[in-house]
Amino acid sequence: MPPTVLCLGEILFDCLADQLGKPYEAVESWTPYPGGAPANVACGLVKLGTSAGLIGCVGDDEPGHQLMNLLQEVGVEISGMQRHPQAPTRQVYVVRTDEGDRQFAGFGDVASDEFADTRLDGAQIPESLFESAEFLVMGTLAMAYPESNQAIARCRELARQHGVQVLIDVNWRPVFWPDVESAKATIRKAIADADILKLSDEEAEFLFNTQVVTEVATQLPGVSRLIITRGDRGCSYCFGDVVGDIEAFSVPVQDTTGAGDGFIAGFLHQLQNQGLDALDEPASARNVMKYASAVGALTAMKPGAIAAQPTAEEVQQFLQGRP
Hints:
Blueprint: E1 5-8, E2 12-17, E3 30-35, H1 37-48, E4 52-59, H2 62-74, E5 81-84, E6 91-96, E7 102-106, H3 128-131, E8 135-138, H4 146-161, E9 165-169, H5 180-191, E10 196-200, H6 201-208, H7 213-219, E11 225-229, E12 235-239, E13 242-246, H8 259-274, H9 282-299, H10 312-319
């Protein structure tokens, strides 16, 4: 079945510190978990029952082979994936606080712009993927590199031609960008005409000097649907005249890596089932956001991003009896 949702960008290994509360230099051992925000969303969608494909590039190396095999095992469409013959598959080192919150600590001995995901070739992306897709999901990390940024432009043009809704999850990571101010300008321009935009509260503050969802919305007249997530403090949303807040579910957190991507997967799974019109009515919009929050909460209860993602049945069980 052709994918309903296309996810554009990186798939990689998150190397999570085994020792909590230690800085990078003091970590004694690491455990690699498959990750990368677009890949997390794609896998999360398939596990919930929505078809998804990933457009990205890995190295022709053992980590790349492992990640491609994982995508196939989960059931993600991979015809949009590329393999680079020289550039390695990206690995990101992640330290964790005593509470399980993660902080990106760098890329080991490889420069950020030398990984395969920076070499994504827009000319090789199959246009046929966009003919049946309803949503294109992307972040902004690949915008930091010229070749992958051109591939993003190609995908956005294909999305426009085929009437595909574009959801951008900013996913701001300073370690990917050599210059913060130029990054800010690049990101603000890129998100100005997104159909759906998701920001964290920190990203909202960084880009718009406010965390109030309606104040951000006034600065983005071209964006009709906006979400600001706040971790364990829930999220806010502004879908035109439909504005609201959702409290976070109280759960025992083991690892927050990929929780935001789980949120996006849950959100899009609901839109695929109910249609975009669900966001135009307060009660149904709140239910969509509640479901998305549940997927994010369940993802945070286990280590890793993809490995921790719930099935639709698990989400349903989690929500039973909760207000």
